[in-house]
Amino acid sequence: MRLPFGLNAVFSIQGPRSIYVYSLFIGLLSGFGAYGFNWALTWTESFTFGNLIGYDPGTPAGDLHFHSVGSVGELSPLWILFLPAIGGLLVGIITSFFCPEAQGGGTDSLIHAFHFNEGKIHTKVPFYKAIATILTLGSGGSGGKEGPTAQIGAGFGSSLANFLGAGARARRTLMLAGTAGGLGAIFRAPLGGAITAVEMVYQEDIESDSLVPCILSSVTAYLTYTSIAGSGSIFSVQEYSLNDYRHIPLYILLGLLCYVVGYFFVKVYHFVQDIFSKLPLPNFLKPAFGGLIVGCIALLFPEVLGSGFGLIQRMINGEVLTSTSFGFSGPFFLLAVAIFKVFSTSLTVGSGSSGGLLGPSFAIGGMLGAFVGTMANVLFPELNIIVFPFLLVGMGSFFAGVARAPIAGMIMVCDMIGSYALLPALMIVAMIAVVLSHKISIYRNQIKNRFLSPSHHWDMNQDIMDRIRILDHFTEFRKYAMVSEHLSLTQLQTNAPGIQASDFILIGSNDEYKGIVSLRKNRILPEYEQELKNLITCGEIVQDVPPVCQSDTLGKALRILLEYDVDKLAIVEDNRCLGYLRYIDLFNAYQNEVKNKNKLRKAI
């Protein structure tokens, strides 16, 4: 569905300002979409965790507006074992028979759409993704809720671009703006959502062209969401600042630990993905099988169920986390939860269930940070370690390492706690994790940088053409389609088929350049040829198209051809027209330049 023809000129995207306006609108829709999704998910979790499983995972402060898990019954091993499998079966039916794109993490599919599919997302994907994720997380699956909210926003952006008849570049920008809106709303992170959207598509770069639209969308979505759900950050944190520099070696150790466990997480997740893709089971049963294994893990560690954000809030509040099944606590219990969270997340998302990887990455990193802080308290009680700063720094740093998104990891955590006091520690730990993790990424569709992305091939080619001068490839120029300004239009129409041209270079008596006449835009209809014969000359309908000289570049020539919608361009020296170049001439020169460079590179 597209805009009616009459409205196209009014509402079509005509430049950056149009993109900015539509980004605000997408942010508004994303904020409402994130609120509706979070309400439905929290209601589902309150029933399954409270009435069936009998386990309270806790509630982050920013979600207290929604219904939390109410009265909790007795812990039910039967439901713990089988409920994730039941949820996986329902998700498998949805992804196998209704919407295959709804399976998995969601973020990776957005990255693929950006690079390889011109930012196109099927309209049905956000709807089915939301339902599948509610079933996955509501049944105890280990995943995050950022996947569907990002896809809801991205779906709004992509669909709006299609409706407006926008090109691929605008569609990609609006898709990322929607992604930023979904993340900014669900995590209450207006700046973090925008930075994550533009950074997650590359391993060593950011999509800078989309930064402003993403900020506008993310802030709008955040304001929309908090206007309904109440203001404040997702986590409630007491005041803290890094003022004891004896803690810095511990943060360095945390960075090394985030790299080691992050490397393990990426390998396990990709291994599980590959195993389940080859598993000799019907596709709709694979998420159920993965859910069954998650249920077995949860029998020992129910703490791995869900996103893990509730556990993080409980630990920030100062609660000593104790094993639900075994009744023990301490640093190694926290490490065990982190390791088993790696397996449960890999099995949930890697088997085909629907859930994000960003949320579990925060939870795993938080447990690693809590492990370091708690262990330091045991070994060095004189340092008076406060655990929750290590927990929060671990969250952002672990995600920064596994997702190759250092700025996003740091800013996201600062937004989620409503303070930048931990930024110095985050910078230290995140940089260690990212530098060591330079060869791994949890997102398989990430591309190293924009120079290697199919979405920017044309930009890179244009950059090459701006370095090639016309005189480097041309010494003589075509003159077949050069005509006098005094030639009549009817005579030009008669001669055109023999010359096989539709656009003509117009010259004066001394070969001076006058402009271009296009028969595609100026033509006498056959029924009027006799009456208007010789009355209209080419000089009277000339189009003022700038010429180029031999020292100009192919890039400049190509831009003029595109801007003035002509198929050839005059080459002028000392006000004398030497001939012209066509589209095909420019591209042949470009191809020859590339071939010569490749031969030289091979010779070296």
From TrEMBL:
Residues 542-590 form the CBS domain. Keywords: Chloride, Chloride channel, Ion channel, Ion transport, Membrane, Transmembrane, Transmembrane helix, Transport. Coiled coil: none annotated. It is found in: Membrane. Its main location: membrane. The keyword Isomerase does not apply. The keyword Cytoplasm does not apply. InterPro entries: CBS_dom, CBS_dom_sf, Cl-channel_core, ClC, ClC-type_chloride_channel. It is a multi-pass membrane protein. It holds the Pfam family CBS. This is Chloride channel protein. It comes from Leptospira bouyouniensis.
